[in-house]
Amino acid sequence: MAQVSMTVNGRAASAEIEGRTLLSTFLRETLHLTGTHVGCDTSQCGACVVHVNGEAVKSCTMLASEADGAEVATIEGQANADGSLNVIQQAFQDHHGLQCGFCTPGMVMSAAALLKENPKPSEAEVRAYLEGNICRCTGYHNIVKAIMAASGQDVSALAAE
Amino acid sequence: MSAGAPLPHDAAHLHVTGAARYIDDIPVPANCLHLAFGLSQSAAGRITDMDLARVRQADGVVAVMTAADLPFANDVSPAAHDEPLLATGQVHYVGQPVFLVIARSHHAARRAARLGKITIAEETPILTLAEALAANSRFEDGPRIYTKGNAAAAIDKAAHKISGTLHLGGQEHFYLEGQAALVFPQENGDMHVHSSTQHPTEIQHKVADAIGRPMHAVRVESRRMGGGFGGKESQGNALAVACAVAANLTGRACKMRYDRDDDMIITGKRHDFEIQYTAGVAPDGRIAGLQFTHLVRCGWAMDLSLPVADRAMLHADNAYHLTDVEITSHRLKTNTQSATAYRGFGGPQGMIGIERVMDHIAANLGLDPLAVRRVNYYQQGAGQTTPYGQIVEDFILDEMTDTLTVSCDFAARKAQVEDWNRNHPTLKKGLALTPVKFGISFTLSHLNQAGALVHVYQDGSVHLNHGGTEMGQGLFQKVAQVAATCFGLPLQQIKITATDTGKVPNTSATAASSGSDLNGMAVKAACETIKTRIAEHLGAVHGAAADSVVFDGGRVIAGAHSLTFAEAAASAYQARISLSATGFYKTPKLAWDRIKGTGRPFFYFAYGVAATEVVIDTLTGENRILRADILHDAGQSLNPALDIGQIEGGYVQGAGWLTTEELVWDARGRLLTHAPSTYKIPACGDRPKVFNVALWDGQNREDTIFRSKAVGEPPFMLGISAYSALCQAVQACGPTFADLRAPATPEAVLAAVMRTQAGQG
User: Fold this and answer.
1) Which domain holds residue A45?
2) Of B349, B304, B312, the residue nearest B511 (C-alpha)
C-alpha cells in the first residue's frame, strides 16, 4: 500500500492505495470521478485522457503514484466556475460532436490540451492531434468541426452538419 | 414544432461534462462482487478435467461456478438453446466461457480466472468456410435457395458470361463501452438488472430462466450504451445472466464487464462471407441472369445467423432489377466466435456482391461502371419486383443519382481521374458511385411492434418511456421530439427516462434501424390518447367540440378559452381523468415467408448514393480516401442533425469494414487481432478530407412517424463506394479485372495490383 496525494480539479485528494493502482482506477473508484472512461485498457483509444500538470495523458496506463503531488484535471472540472459549459464543451454540443458519448470526455480533454499549445490549429493539425482518440460513432467530422469552432475559427466551409 | 428540428443529442450536456452514467459508473454497495469468466484455450474438444483449486484460493475470490453449479437454465442463446453460459463437457471456440469467478474486485476476478487448469481432449477444429463446407458443418438441413425466373437458362443465352468470387471479411463492433451488466438482488429473490443492451426484454427472459423464476421477477433497465451497432443485441446475455446467478448465490450486488481483449475474444462479430457469382450479361451491360452462392461463416452457435443470412439474400439485388436470379445461401458452422448482428445485419454482405458484379461487368465489357449500374436500376413505377416478389414502389435512385452526380461534379472529376492515371505510373486514383436500397422492417415479422408509456403530471410535465434503447443514435431525443410535437410543448417539458421492462413489456430489440419508426409511433399513440381525454374534458367544460381543441405553443385552446398545458392537466386531474396512457404500434402491410422466400418482408426501402474518390500507391498498396459525397434519404427527417451524424458515422464505419478492419485467426482458431493495437478501426485521419453529406428532400411514401425514414443502418452501405473506388484504382493498373478482396488492406491492394499488372485477373 502507498499513500498518494494530488490535486484533482483544484481539490486536494489523498488516499492509501495499492502501488499498482492505475490513475484511471484511482479517479473512478477512489474519487468516484466516473467521467474518465476506460475503453481499451491499453492506452490506444483515448477515452481515459486527463491532464497531469497540464499535459494530456492516458490515465489507464499511468500509475496513480506517478501522479503523486501533481495537478490533475478531469472532465468533471472543465465547466466554467458558474457551472456553464466551457467553450470546447459547448462546441461539442452545438456541433453534434458526439453520439454515444463514451469517447467524449477524452476527446474534450485532448481538445483542451491541443488548443492550449496551438490556439488556432488547422484542420490537418486537429486531425493529427486526435489520432490517439478513437470514436466509433461519428466518423469524426463533427468532432473536428467542434474543435475548430471552439478555437474561434469559421467552420461554415466544413460542409456537412 | 419540435419534430424536424436539428437539436443536439438529449444527453449532450451530460456527455461533455462526464456526468452521463454508463453501467460501470452506477454507484454500487461496498460489498458488490465482480465477475470474470475463465475461457477455453482450445477451439474444439472435450473437457476431461477442470482443476480450479488455485482459482478458489486466489486473493479476493468468493466463489467459482461451473456448469454443474447452475441450478436452472444454462443458456444464453437468443433462440436456439445451443449456447450455454458455461461450457458443458464440450468446448467450441477459443474464448468460450468455461467457469465463472466471483471476487471482491474486478482485478481479483480477472487474475484468478487465469489460474484455472482446464484439460481438453483436443479435436480438429473447423475454422474456415472451405473446411465447414467440406465437412457439411452447417445450420439448417441444407442451403436456403431463393429463385425468380430461370437464372441458369438466362445465363446460357446471354451474350457474355462473367464469373468470380469475392472474399469478404467480418468486422468487430468495437463499441467504445465494452459489454457490461450490474445486478442488484431484491427481496424475495427478484432481480434488478442494469445492462448495456439493445434488447432488455431478452435479458429479462434469459435471466428469469437462469434463476428459475417468471419474467415478472426480473426488471431490466438500460439508460444508455456506449455504442451498440448490433453487438449488444444478444452478446450481453452472458454477462447479465452471470451476474444474476452470482447474485442469487451470494445475495450481493454483482457486476461484470469485459475488458477490451476479453470482449473481442469472447463476443461475436459481423459474419464473413465468400460470395461466388455467375452473371449472364447483354452487350449494354444489362444483367440477363444471375446466380449467387453465399458461404456464410456463422461460428459455433446459431445466434442470429439465419435472419442475418436471409437479409444478405434479400439485399443481393440492391438497386437492380433482376428478372432471372438464383441465390443460394450456406450457413456454415465453425469453431470460432458465434457471428452476430452488426449494423446492416447481412444486408451489406448481400449488397456488395452485386456491386462487385457491376464493376466486373464494366471491366470485362469496357463500359463505364456507373452506366452499367444505371442500365440495371429498377424503373420507377414499372411494377418491377425484387427477387422475393416485393414490388419496388418508390424507386427514387434515378433522381438521387442525377442530383449527386451534378453536386459532386462526377463526370468532370471522372475525366480528371482518368487523366491522372494516364500520367502517373505509381499513384493511381479511382472514383466510384454506388447506390443503396435497404429494406426496412424486421424480417421476423412479429418483431415489428412497439409499446410506450406516457404520464402527464399535474404540473404539466411529461414522463416519457418506450421500448427502444439509446446507443448514441439519438433515438431518445427523436422520440421526445415526437411527444413534444404531439402535445405542442417545448422539449424541456418532456422527461426522457431509461428503458425499463417494468414500464413497457415485451419489447423487440432496438435493431433493424426500426427504433424511431416503431417507438415514435407507439409514443404518438399514447400522447394522442391523453390529448383526446384532455380535449373531451375541456371541450365539455368550455362548450367546444373536442376535435376543435388545439395543443400548441405550450397552451391548450378550447373555444374562446386558452389555458397553459399545466392548467389543462390540473383541470383534467381534478375532473378525475386519467393522464397516463400506453401506446402500441405494429407495422402494417407485412407478409413474408422466409422458407419460400416470397412476400413483402419490408414496409418500405431507404435509399442513398455515395461517390468516393481514392488514391492508391501501387508500390506499397497504401491507400487514402480523398473525398466522399453523399446524398441520403431519411424521408421527412425527424432531426436532420442526428440523421446526418448517422450518415457520416455509418459511411466511415462501412468504409472501415472494407479497408482497414481485418480480423485474423491463427491455425488453432485463436483470434490474433483482439485489441485496437492490431485491429484498426478508422481514426480521425482516415476520414475523407472532403466530406459532403446532404439529405434527400422527400417524404416517406408510407405512413411512418411524420413521414420520416429509418437511418441507423442504410448509410453504412454507402461505404461500399470506397471499396468500389479502390477496385477502379487497381483496375487502372492493368487490363484484367481487379480481383480485390475485402478488407482492402494495403497487402490486399498490393496483391491485386500485382495480379492486374501481370494480367492474371
Assistant:
1) 2-77
2) B304
